[in-house]
Amino acid sequence: MMRGHKRSVLRCFTVRSASFGEGHVYDRRMPSADEILQRMRAIQERREEAIRPLLALLAERSQLLKKLEELKEPYGRAYVMAEEGGWTPEELAALGADEPVKRPRRRKRTAKKPAANAPETGSPAAAVPAQGPAPAQDAPVGTGSSD
Fold it and tell me: Are the beta carbons of 26 and 17 closer than 8 angstroms?
């Protein structure tokens, strides 16, 4: 009877675990470090295989988002040109053209500035005489004569 009892006790320690793979039977002995590493590598390989499609799509998505960002400004310019050509926002929307998120920057029209090397004519500053002592003309330097 001892033998039958011993077998039933051993069956109590038999465990099926999904984490070690289907049908793995725990046999009451401690796995070696190599066995643990082997199991860990198998689990890690399955995890890596599972993430590869996501990583490929993330890379493609990143490229597409960058391309979309590059198109925002030209799209805005084209949309404004269509509006200036007589299209209303409602008509453009009916055609599938959404209002742009980024409209082109409008340049402020300012008075033209003269070129840096061009002489200033008609400038109010040119009519004001220079202030300070007038330079001596024809006076020899160091003669000691003062008028």
Answer: yes
Note the helical H segments in 13-133.
33-84, 89-94, 124-127
Mean pLDDT of the chain: 75
Distance, in Å, from the CA atom of 123 to the CA atom of 75, rounded to the nearest integer, reads 44
107: tokens are 């340049």
Does position 70 have pLDDT exceeding 70, yes or no?
Answer: yes
Tokens representing residue 24 in the block: 């793995």
> Which one, of 10, 43, 44, lies nearest residue 27 by Cα?
10
* Residues 43, 46, 50, 55, CA torsion sign: positive
Distance, CA of 84 to CA of 79 (rounded, Å): 9
